[in-house]
Amino acid sequence: MQFKKILNSISFYRIALFFFFLVFFLESLFFALYIREAIFPDEGHHLRLSQLYSETYTNLKNSEESYHLGDIEHIPYLYHWIGGRILNVKKVIFPFVEDLFVLRVFSVILGVVNLYIAYQIVKRVTKEKLQHVLLIAMLSSTPMFSFISAGVSYDPLVFLFSFLSILLTLKLLERNSISLLLSLVITMLAGILTKKTFLPLVVVIIFFLIIKTFQERKEYLNIIKRSLKDKRELRHIIFLLLVTFFFLFLSLNLYLRNIIKYKNLIPSCTQVMQEEDCMKDPEFLRDLALQENAPPRAERLKPYWYIPHWVYLMINTTYAICGHKAVKLSYSQFIRFFMIIILGLIMFVRKYDVKNPKYNFLVILSLFYTFTLMFYVNYQSYLWRGVIGVALQGRYIFPVIVPIYICVIEGLLLFKNKYMRVTIFGVILFVFLYGNIPFFVRNLTADWFFENAGDIRTVLNVKDSLYIINHNIKRFLP
């Protein structure tokens, strides 16, 4: 039977998708259960903030007990507020389970949801099932994506709002809808209440929304008129409007207040606290030490020389592990992933159809976000701290990783020859699968895991796993 017929069969298609979803879930759950504290990026910080929010329903205020966390009063807080509510429920239903474990499982659930939304996105862009399967295979086998989806972090929630915003925008490009439009606005507002770096996505999406709404203004007026006559639809729109205004108020209360009072979206620690109080924050001390020991500004890299370093570090911290412990790619591993990405993008540019509004959106969104991250965030951080690798990690590009992967896949699978397409599909699949779980097995040693877990080879040993699972479950109990 031909490969295309096999792939188009519902059973094979569903089995392939189910397999990658299952592997991703089990892999992330494995990390959530076994990786010890102080490994995932900033996990202790996010855990402590969530615990503080579990004690209040309003915004936190800077205090003596929070100075070691830096400024917690003027920053996006939605993830930590949700984390606080989860811990409140946990105390009632599972009071004996550790906070760390509960919030890690929450991240795993978000990771699976993010993978599903990514699947919905690629279905909106192309009907070709080969591309659907390959996208899910690539995303679920991106090591840092599965790793960060297991730790206590706001990143999985940021990815959720990013992917959902992309999906809703694609739906709006297909059909006009007041409900979809309001849902998208709510999602974007929730995103900027979670992390400041969500703002570049908002800029591009709003740009597309303004153009789309202006072009279809007559139809939107007709939709409003029809909604006024339909009581059920009217109630739904009124509800969405109320939620929109609520999130808009929260967003303005955070960012507009900061701009008016501190002339910045997020003020520095010394703008809102005494320097001696800021010195209690380890991150503040790190940045202070880096600035004091940094080379003269005139000796630092120009933007065009900074780009190769940025690309290398971005790939190395996407397809390896970067937290409070790190594993780097070998040269050959780096080359494999680099060639797949760069060749896919080059081939996509050759095929790119500027008349396709969906690809226009994905391309502009990816480019704008990437260049904003590269020059406005990472390069400015380098100029400030004097060190290239600080605050430069692959997880920061994940809000647009789905559009990037879609473009790469579209470029690599442009060949009409089915044997060429199947060969390329197989090569990409092998590189990503081999670069995921086998990569972890080769590199994660005993000091990555909870006490008595041994290294990952011991953990994966079926005979020893029963003892280790029992030990780790007991660890989360009193």
**What structural category arises from helix and sheet content?**
mainly alpha
Principal-axes geometry comes out as globular
Taken as a percent bin, the fraction of beta residues is: under 5%
What string gives the helices and strands in order?
HHHHHHHHHHHHHHHHEEHHHHHHH
> How many domains in all?
1
Question: Span from first to last CA?
Answer: 57 Å
For this entry, what is the oligomeric state of its chains? single chain
Number of helical regions: 23
What is the helix fraction of residues, given as a range?
over 70%
Mean pLDDT: 89
Physical arrangement of strands within the biggest beta sheet: 1-2
Uncertain segments: none
The largest sheet, given as strand count, sense and whether it forms a barrel, is:
2 strands, antiparallel
Strand elements, count: 2
- The value of Rg in angstroms is 23 Å
